[in-house]
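User: I'm writing a tutorial on reading structure tokens. Could you give me a worked example: one chain, its sequence, then its tokens, then a sentence or two explaining what the tokens reveal?
Assistant: Sure. Here is the example chain.
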Amino acid sequence: MTAATDTSRPSTERTGFPCSREGCERPRAEKATHCSFLCKAIECELARIQRLSEAVGPSPVVAELWSHATTVGDSWSEVLRLHDHLAQEAEAVGISAEQWSAIRDGG
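And here are its predicted structure tokens:
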């Protein structure tokens, strides 16, 4: 399924700027590198674990750390996907994009 036909997430084709985190296909702002603070934090943590792994070498602790960090990334991707789906549901029941932003952001 392509981004143009997949309605479960916003298309990066609209902005031309995909998030830099591997596995995240959400659009980002033109001057940003990631779609969210958490995507940037997850990518930084994975890079940190990679450096530590290279320094220490393979170990059960490194494997477990990597596993948990990638699980966080996968979970965050799912949270973002569900947020996008919920926004589509809100639009379907007549909530405007402006109203949705105010509801979502608490303002």
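What the tokens reveal: Residues 12 and 27 are 5 Å apart (CA to CA). The first helix runs from residue 37 to 56.
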